[in-house]
Amino acid sequence: MDLKQVAKDTSKVLSSYLTYQALKTVMAQLSETNPPQALWLSGFASRHSVQDGEAFLQALLQEKQDLAFRLMTLRKHLAEEVADYLPEMVRSGIEQANMEHQRHHLERLVQQGVTDSSTYPKEEKES
């Protein structure tokens, strides 16, 4: 396993997710302050996937530089705000989720065992 590549891929996904969050926030703000521009941005987002945040921003820079800079500024702010506590949240979230998955799996196994054992004939005790 190439941990550097895993970290690089994770960073790219997180960056794209923060781009998506910035887009949602800006669209909500624009819907209140500038509905026509919000509509335009919504249409742009429907034509360009934000799944690759960098490609999305590059395309937006070609059409509406001011909106692209607004998204980049907000994305940077979001990254700065969550960067400090994100690693611990990820670790503890994964640990908790793994324990839940394991617990549910063990419960199913135990329930199957109880169901399976009830189909066997019961031994009669000799007196």
TrEMBL record:
GO biological process: carbon fixation; photosynthesis; ribulose bisphosphate carboxylase complex assembly
Endpoints of the signal sequence: none
Principal location: other
InterPro entries with a match to the protein in the record: Chaperonin_RbcX_sf (IPR038052), Chaperonin_RcbX (IPR003435), RbcX (IPR046381)
Molecular function as annotated in GO: protein folding chaperone
UniProtKB keywords: Bacterial microcompartment, Carbon dioxide fixation, Carboxysome, Chaperone, Cytoplasm, Photosynthesis
GO (cellular component) term, any one: carboxysome
Region spans: Disordered: 105-127
Cell compartment(s), UniProt: Carboxysome; Cytoplasm
UniProt superkingdom: Bacteria
Function comment: An RbcL-specific chaperone. The central cleft of the RbcX homodimer (RbcX2) binds the C-terminus of an RbcL monomer, stabilizing the C-terminus and probably preventing its reassociation with chaperonin GroEL-ES. At the same time the peripheral region of RbcX2 binds a second RbcL monomer, bridging the RbcL homodimers in the correct orientation. The RbcX2(2)-bound RbcL dimers then assemble into the RbcL8 core (RbcL8-(RbcX2)8). RbcS binding triggers the release of RbcX2.
Subunit field text: Homodimer. Interacts with the exposed C-terminal peptide of RbcL via its central cleft, contacts a second RbcL monomer via its peripheral polar surface.
Family per record: Belongs to the RbcX family.
PANTHER family for this protein: CHAPERONIN-LIKE RBCX PROTEIN 1, CHLOROPLASTIC, RUBISCO CHAPERONE RBCX
HAMAP family reported in the protein's UniProt record: RbcX
Note on domains (UniProt): The homodimer has 2 functional domains, a central cleft essential for production of soluble RbcL in which the RbcL peptide binds, and a polar surface which plays a role in correct RbcL subunit arrangement.
Protein name per the record: RuBisCO chaperone RbcX
